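Sat 14:20. Reprocessing the chain from the morning session after the first attempt stalled halfway. Input below, unchanged.
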Amino acid sequence: MACKDTAGRMRARCALWEATQRARCDQWRTDWTQRCDAWHTAWTQRCAAWHTESQQRCDRWEQEWTQTCSSWGPFAILCLLWAWVSTWVCRAWSWVTTTICDVWTWVSSTVCDLWTWVSNTICTLWVLVTTFVCRLWVFVVDIWCSIFCAIRRLLAPNEFSQARSECIYGWTARYRIDENSEECTLRVTLRIRLVADTGVSATDIATVTARWEPAIEAAWSNRFPLVLSDGTCRCKGYTVSVDVQFVQTGEHHVVTVHSGSGRADMGNWYVNSTGGTAAHESGHMFGNSDEYADSNCPNRTVTSDGSIVQNSQTGTVRPRHYQGFADWLSNRTCCTYSVG
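Finished this time. Tokens:
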């Protein structure tokens, strides 16, 4: 995953986390507010019902004793006094128990409301703290990604140079590479200075230049796209074009041109060397190793898929030979590009 995209996705996750947790806190507060309201309503109704029932009992008690007292004759006054006192005690008990019920309703409802407020406050603080930590981590990742991408860009200079080795062989891949993010193209410039060996004329140099330049460009240009596989870079794919320039100064590579025919290598070509040979040797200049059997490299990977660095005359550029360009582009853009 591209580093800067990791930060972007983490930022989105932080926002989602905050929204989700806030929604949970709101739902928690709503649920408990409804529970507290329902509790308060239920107990208010119970207290009111208790008050009504107890008052009715006292009224019945008073009525019953008043009726009874009428039959007590001369002692009716004592009976009425008893009815009055007991009824007063009944009503006092009704008032005390109703008051206790009302107090319980108020206390328990207040405790419930307080619990709702405290728990919701804790929930809100939890959201604030965790979201802050999440965003702080994203900030750290952003800083790290900026540093990481800057380091990667240092590995992708326009004038590219990288030491390469295989078994007993060693060479330097060297070329210029320019990215055009508007046109989504990658231009690879290979500057070669040809040095004429004894017996090689200026006419010979002009002849081989006209043969080798188009052969190298045709073999290496627009073979495979470099496709965005991870990241949010503007270009979803790049085309690669190779421009070979035979120069007198500012070269990437020096090639000695010998007369006649012979076994060419990266620094020695022959007047009779074909365009395929030149394209093969240019593959080394781009950093690719040979892929044919060699007793000096018993552990070499030998291919049989028509690779240009396995057979210079009939082979073609394979996707793996563009990997160096893809790596450069990935470092340059801080996205990940692969060979399509």
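The CA atoms of residues 165 and 260 lie 29 Å apart.
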